[in-house]
Amino acid sequence: MKNLLIASTSTVHGGNYLAYLLPELQLHFAQSKSILFVPYARPGGISHEEYTLKVKSFFALLNIEVNGLHEFSNPTQAIEKAEGIFTGGGNTFLLVTQLHQNNQMQILKKVIESGTPYLGTSAGSNICGPTMQTTNDMPIIYPPSFETLGVIPFNLNPHYLDTDLQSKHMGETRETRIKEFHQFNAQPVIGLREGSWLDVKGEQITLKGELSARLFRQNQEAIEVESGNKMEKFV
Amino acid sequence: MKNLLIASTSTVHGGNYLAYLLPELQLHFAQSKSILFVPYARPGGISHEEYTLKVKSFFALLNIEVNGLHEFSNPTQAIEKAEGIFTGGGNTFLLVTQLHQNNQMQILKKVIESGTPYLGTSAGSNICGPTMQTTNDMPIIYPPSFETLGVIPFNLNPHYLDTDLQSKHMGETRETRIKEFHQFNAQPVIGLREGSWLDVKGEQITLKGELSARLFRQNQEAIEVESGNKMEKFV
Predict the structure, then answer these.
(1) Is A33 part of a structural domain of the chain?
(2) Whole-angstrom Cα distance, residue B155 to residue A231?
(3) Annotated catalytic residue A137
(4) What's the structural domain count of chain B?
(5) pLDDT tens-digit profile of A141-176?
(6) Which residues pair with A201 in a beta bridge?
(7) Residue A217 lies in a domain
(8) Is some CB atom of chain A closer than 8 A to the CB atom of B19?
(9) What's residue B72's pLDDT?
């Protein structure tokens, strides 16, 4: 049974890395002595090693060992044997390029569908939908494809930002961009605000955290969905 | 001799479409009885026809006729014969996809290099650099390539937004995103604020408008360049 925690952000304002998710993660990875970390998104361009160290020091609090996917001579086997997997945030184009180039997208999908507990934050959450096409990131590298894991039937927009009606900035709002997406693509998009996450158990996708999420569907007005709701009702 | 006006935005806050550029455009298109409009970026998903009508009604003020590139049975010839070209803003991924699929990128580059006056705003400005990889837009469609016109040696980031030190939002700042770009790409990036534009005459690229621009170069600290400066000094 699928078992995912798909978070908008790793860090909420004023908090430490992953701290707001600590009680959830204790439950989520209760059976995992170690987890495999996918560091490919490299936030701010940090190295795989630096990124993995940051994650190691958080999970040490939970007595869980962390190994970076880049450390393995046989990464396919590492994914298959993992007791838990965490893909961190950063640049989604870079993450998706690496996963495709290393032929790891399909194997990752397979183990997630078989029940390996998965945690994604930001870019690591983006890849859970059918495509990465509602990312906020810059296209710093050209991926072989925009297709991603497709383990949930929604695309995600993490760090969702409401339209600031006071703003004098003339760039597109997040809502405008998602509407442009729906000119060409049919899957619903969940605008997931910071501090919100999706708790996926099998085909049940529950919105968690204090805030509502904004749901965009092709040819329909966007709606607010309150925390606690099952998102799969809205596909 | 190249003759381009590359603007961050079509519209400044509180103003009408292209109004702040009106005196510049009178000079820029002084020899053009008609201009060819490239509507492919479709802001907010509007149709080629709707978008072209909007542009027609602005240029009517200058007594300049406007024809949409989508209206021609022989678009290559339309580009070659154009007395002026304007590419409007919208979604850069969509614009670049269409230009590549229609084999129009190279012919557009050729006529611009031969001296056809060109105006770009937002997405239409993005395509003037070597690649579209510093766009702010969502990847709503998968382009055959991220390469663009390369008629200036900088990438652009239109609608440049300074880091808001008061913000509680944890998404990446524009500066962070551009630094990630420079982990993988060498060309300088001009963060062009709204109300700013580049005036290109041959190889001279002058920053115009009231504001400074933010210049990012690989392995260097970002700097502010004041209006009136020649940007080609900084390559």
Answers:
(1) yes
(2) 40
(3) yes
(4) 1
(5) 999 999 999 999 999 999 998 888 788 888 888 999
(6) A3, A204
(7) no
(8) no
(9) 98
**C-alpha span between A10 and A16 (Å, rounded):** 9
pLDDT, tens digit, 9 for 90 and up, residues A59-73: 999 999 999 999 999
- The answer as to whether A201 is a domain residue is yes
Owning domain of residue A29: 3-152+192-211+227-234
ipTM above 0.90, yes or no: yes
Residue A130 lies in a domain: yes
Site of tokens 């304002």: A13
Which residues have C-beta within 8 Å of that of residue B31, sequence separation ≥ 6? B83, B117
Q: List the catalytic residue out of B8, B10, B32, B122.
A: B122
Return the structure tokens found at A139.
């296209």
* Residue of B17, B172, B196, B211 to mutate for A, most A C-beta atoms under 10 A: B172
Q: Which long-range contacts (CB under 8 A, 24 or more apart) does B159-162 make?
A: B159/A169, B159/A170, B159/A171, B159/B8, B159/B9, B159/B122, B159/B192, B159/B193, B159/B194, B160/B8, B160/B191, B160/B192, B160/B193, B160/B194, B160/B213, B160/B214, B161/A169, B161/A171, B162/B214
Contacts B96 to A, Cβ<8 Å? none
CA–CA min distance A71, chain B (Å)? 21
Q: Do B142 and A139 touch (CB under 8 A)?
A: no
CATH number, domain with residue A79? 3.40.50.880
Nearest residue on chain A to B90, alpha-carbon basis: A172
Structure tokens at A9: 């952000």
Residues A124, A4 contacting (CB under 8 angstroms): no
Closest B-chain CA to A140:
B181
